[in-house]
Amino acid sequence: MNDNFTSPDFYQIDDLLSEEHKLIRESTRQWVSKSVCPIIEDYAQKAEFPKHLIKELGEIGAFGPYIPQKYGGAGLDQISYGIMMQEIERGDSGIRSTASVQSSLVMYPIWKFGSEEQKEKFLPKLATGEMMGCFGLTEPDHGSNPSGMITNFKSDGEDIILNGSKMWISNSPFADIAVVWAKDENKRIHGVIVERGMEGFSTPETHNKWSLRASATGELIFDNVRIPKKNILPGKSGLGAPLMCLDSARFGISWGAIGVAMDCYNTALKYSLERVQFGKPIAAKQLQQKKLAEMLTEITKAQLLSWKLGKLKNEDKATSAQISLAKRNNVDMAMNIARESRQVLGGMGITGEFSIMRHMMNLESVITYEGTHDIHLLILGHDITGHNAF
Ligand code: TGC
Ligand code: FAD
User: Fold this and answer.
1) Residue 370 is among the residues annotated as catalytic for this protein
2) For the residues of 349-360, what is the DSSP string, one character each?
3) Quick one: which of 69, 195, 201, 334 could link to 261 by a disulfide (CB 3.0–4.6 Å)?
């Protein structure tokens, strides 16, 4: 497998990064180059998640980079988190998914809304990867509209009884815990930590995906699952709680998409310089230069967008609509670059010799999960006009 790890930095955006950011990028990049790139095509072809990477993801600090050190996180800033997601997704969106679900959708809600006991019990093990989690919001009949969810629980003494189901859940087939969003008897949404082994809880895997093949996706089924009330996240209820988690994950995805775009661009550039047709490298042809110039332009714009969003997030000033704009723009940008760079490679572009086709198929999930392309447009429309058009 070819891999390309030269980062386009046309506007000297590196000047905006601290020495720590650059060190994090370098170490994450080295790990991806050594541990992900050589094996990932094989796992994608087999449609299998490379479970052995979990421990290493924990070791490089990809689980909860911004969670405080006292809970096992790395205590880093938001730009560091973004840079890690960028480098990991340069390798594969499915591996980035595992890191961002664990960080933003499992550790983040426990850190933000959990009791001290929950934080101490779960966060350190989630940070090392000794324990893995998943996030259950989407249901068979409620995807873009999670407020209509049916999954619910009733109080029974010191416990609750949970019923319902979730689908399209990343990492569910092997997760030790699931942060599940469900309605109480008053139809108020709460986060509940469901633990593997609880009676009536099962996690069947979803097969035959053409996208995110190296990531495990499944369902969460709750059939009268008895759960102690101490597993409810006490700090926040209502749809705003899972939406806050999504803001964090969507921010990471905006960076991850840049990593995919960089890998596709670098592959196309290198190939076009080497591939000779009509007596010249195809890079000497205007049509190919147009593709490459437009790719670099879009990557540069996306880099600036995510960097500025990271600054805003560091200051706790980023709005949900700003995050939607970045997730929507950058994933769409990466999809376009993947398509264009695949064409630069001609027939070779469809093979597993190169990463482009795998990235292209992965992005079909990335543009759908964490809010579809259209939902993010409607979030922006709402923010601009004050009118909710959902
Ligand atoms: P709406 O009435 O607008 O809001 C309900 C309540 O939530 C508050 N709120 C937020 N709070 C915090 N952060 C945000 N981003 C918030 N957005 C809204 C809002 O103020 C309100 O609070 P309150 O106190 O008044 O009740 O809700 P709505 O039902 O109209 O829906 C809004 C909409 C459509 C934007 C939202 O439902 C949405 O984002 N839908 C998309 C669903 C989605 O993104 N699902 C993702 C599932 S997880 C996933 O895909 C993981 S993939 C992981 C991987 O593998 O990487
Ligand atoms: P729908 O909501 O049915 O949307 C179908 C189409 O209708 C879309 O094009 C959408 O944009 C459009 N649409 C919807 N509403 C409107 C509207 N008001 N106006 C105009 N158009 C509209 N979920 C989790 O909870 N946890 C996970 O870990 C997770 N991982 C995932 C992993 C993968 C590989 C995939 C594919 C999905 C994952 N999801 C997860 C689910 C994901 O978040 C949903 O697929 C997504 O939110 C869209 O929901 P849906 O698929 O039900 O599509």
Assistant:
1) yes
2) GGSTTSSHHHHH
3) 334
Q: Which of 132, 183, 239, 388 to mutate to test the pocket of ligand 1 (most atoms within 8 A of CB)?
A: 239
Mean pLDDT of 40-69: 98
Give the single-character DSSP code of 132: -
For the Cβ of 246 lying below 6 angstroms from any atom of ligand 1, the answer is: yes
- Closest by alpha carbon to 241, among 170, 165, 190, 187? 190
Angstrom CA distances, 362 to 92, 112, 160, stand at 8, 30, 37
Tell me the average pLDDT across 326-342.
98
The answer, as to whether pTM is greater than 0.85, is yes
**3: pLDDT strictly greater than 60:** no
Does the pLDDT value for residue 1 go beyond 50? Answer: no
* Ligand 2 pocket, mutate which of 369, 374, 380 (most atoms under 8 A from CB): 369
The residues near 323 (Cβ < 8 Å, ≥ 6 apart) are: 247, 250, 251, 254, 309
Q: What is the pLDDT of residues 294-311, one digit of tens each?
A: 999 999 999 999 999 999
Is the pLDDT at 210 greater than 90? The verdict is yes
- How far, in Å, is the centroid of ligand 1 from the Cα of 328? 15
DSSP 269-323: HHHHHH-EETTEEGGGSHHHHHHHHHHHHHHHHHHHHHHHHHHHHHTT---HHHH
Distance 85 CA to ligand 2 centre (A): 22
Q: Which domains does the chain have, with CATH numbers?
A: 13-132 (1.10.540.10), 134-231 (2.40.110.10), 240-385 (1.20.140.10)
Among all bound ligands, the one having the nearest atom to the CA of 242 is 1
Distance 369 CA to ligand 2 centre (A): 6
Of all ligands present, the nearest one to the C-alpha of 146 is 1
